[in-house]
Amino acid sequence: MDSWIDISLPLNQQTAVWPGDTPFTYEVNWSKEESGSVNVGRITMSIHTGTHIDAPFHFDNDGKKVSELDVNVYIGKARIIHLPVPSSIGIEALTGVDLEGVSRLLIRTDVWPDRSVFPTAIPEIEPELASYLGDKGIRLLGLDLPSVDPIDSKELLSHHELTKHGIHILEGLVLDQIEPGDYELAALPLSLAEADGSPVRAVVKRL
Ligand SMILES: N[C@@H](CC(=O)c1ccccc1NC=O)C(=O)O
Ligand SMILES: [Zn+2]
Ligand SMILES: [Zn+2]
């Protein structure tokens, strides 16, 4: 029997974060000794750490917050494809990739092997890809990269274009061991009312 496979990045003090962003911390804020009954923990983190989804509010002040996003996008059938170490990902890279009936697409690139160090450069997701994928009916794009735009991008063009074409963004997946094919995916965000994104526990199961 196929079981669920974890494709999320473990969160701990060593988890690499966006340069200058809040490090991940977990602490027992109220110990069993202090409370007399329970350990009560507290986490501090940037939302854009590890495996997470972006809400449009991340790059658009008028964009949707996490709790306004449709949960159906983040759970269901997904196709995983492997584009080994591409310099960029555009329409050309996807020519010949069958996307018939696919609404969730996850791309394994293998460009970030040492996840304890934040990458200085990542392949560009070409903004033109957004309309191509949107026209094919894609509603979720997931990648094993920390962003769908170059690290030094200030315009976040691909984030904007993907959103414009109805495509939700899932970043920081761990797909190293995952063979291309069709899977069941669950990567649900927390119901964060005000937030610009959410960490997710992403799992897949072979169909
Ligand atoms: N767009 C990236 C995050 C990002 O751009 C970022 C995250 C934390 C601190 C600064 C960031 N961008 C700075 O230009 C993401 O979606 O995860
Ligand atoms: Zn993000
Ligand atoms: Zn992003």
TrEMBL record:
Residues binding substrate, per UniProt: W18
EC number: 3.5.1.9
Pathway the protein takes part in: Amino-acid degradation; L-tryptophan degradation via kynurenine pathway; L-kynurenine from L-tryptophan: step 2/2
Cofactors that this protein relies on: Zn(2+)
Keyword Hydrolase carried by entry: yes
Listed Pfam families: Cyclase
Entry annotation: catalytic residues: H58
Catalysis performed (reactions): N-formyl-L-kynurenine + H2O = L-kynurenine + formate + H(+)
InterPro entries, per the entry: KFase/CYL, KFase_sf, Kynurenine_formamidase_bac
SUPFAM superfamilies for this protein: Putative cyclase
Binding site for Zn(2+) 2: D54, H159, E171
Binding annotation for Zn(2+) 1: H48, H52, D54, E171
Cofactor notes: Binds 2 zinc ions per subunit.
Keywords recorded for this protein, A-Z: Hydrolase, Metal-binding, Tryptophan catabolism, Zinc
GO molecular function: arylformamidase activity; formamidase activity; zinc ion binding
Subunit structure: Homodimer.
Function field: Catalyzes the hydrolysis of N-formyl-L-kynurenine to L-kynurenine, the second step in the kynurenine pathway of tryptophan degradation.
PANTHER family, sorted: CYCLASE-LIKE PROTEIN 2, KYNURENINE FORMAMIDASE
Protein name stated in the entry: Kynurenine formamidase
Taxonomic source organism: Rummeliibacillus stabekisii
